[in-house]
From TrEMBL:
GO biological process, one term: proteolysis
Cofactor binding annotation: Binds 1 zinc ion per subunit.
Organism annotation: Dimorphilus gyrociliatus
Name this protein carries in UniProt: Metalloendopeptidase
Domain Peptidase M12A as annotated: residue spans: 61-257
Alphabetically ordered keywords of this record: Disulfide bond, EGF-like domain, Hydrolase, Metal-binding, Metalloprotease, Protease, Zinc
Amino acid sequence: MIYKEEESTQTNDDVIVLSQEESEETSFFSTNDTLMIEMDMRLTKQQWERMEESGKVKKRKALRDVAKYWTNGVVPYELQPGTFTSSDAAQIRAAIADYHSLTCIKFRRANGNDRRKIRITSGQGCWSNIGMLSRGQQISLARGCRRKSTILHEFGHALGMFHEQSRPDRDSYITIRFGNVLKSMAYNFNKHGNDRINTYNVPYDYHSVMHYGQTAFSMNGKPTIITKDKSKQYLIGTAKGLSFRDIKVLNLMYKCGAKCNLKAKDCPGEGFVGKNCKCLCPGSPIKICGDTSVKPDKKCNDMHGSCSYWAAKGQCNKYPGFMLKNCRRSCKACDSDASPIPIPKCVDMNKYCPHWARKKYCFHYRYKKYMKANCKKSCRMCVRGKFDK
């Protein structure tokens, strides 16, 4: 059965705040000698001491200490037994599927030989340790945290990423309204220098799944973060998945294209070399640079957070009625997926075409345009004019 994720307008920071049973500026835990900062990042004492300078925390979007990245990009993990429902587990798998498809990072089930691993638990709130720890670590997903975007966010911390608004160049992109910030939480908006931050020369990203929303740490419900680009004001903090720049940073962090002959300088614009040794450019969220068959289509979106996972599992074929209505982008069934160049031969452009044809989608009002462009063979539409009835 396909799991339907409930739609929500909450930002990730909203979810994190609501999941906490209590809120403190900083919380030392005597049982394991760790410190929580920015609501959901748990640091070891050693990490805190390395990041502290002149009484201020120096934060990095991605840790410079490469030893804290997961060895060979492999992340063993385990779920706390008897804690997560099948729907919860589906959301976790959907988040993992995105990391697998968009980066070279690989999550696998932990075994008895894994000393370094992530244990996903239902603790107090949503939080994660930062980077790889030598003795193992946790990600806490309380009941309110078990949606794909929040899970992606917490996994991002575990992989070594910090919040987007911590960058040193943030003042060129956002303004912090300290007058609206809880006084005890103002430290979360301290700006930090390039000496401690590694952005991998990737520009600031309003779309990042690691960005908090406009009212983060607000004492009165008014915005605490104002975007310099006014069109992005209601966008920050609402990402449902990894953005292009999130994906690029992770690929650079884990050197996904390091063994390729192709180099970043060979890629156009913001393009980078991915794990398959091809230049990847901004798309939905990525595409092969120069591939004009995939274009942004504002009217064609996935309506559920698990669409990419379901598509990877072949659900586009098994449940086309649901998937082509709710997961058109992941099923590559957008009108904009049609090739802009006339196809010289009578061929199908999607492996699911025969199945969709049997479901009588060739003349369905909703799918007719797509089927005409991409499923001519299965629809027997190679004769000009047959679709124009």
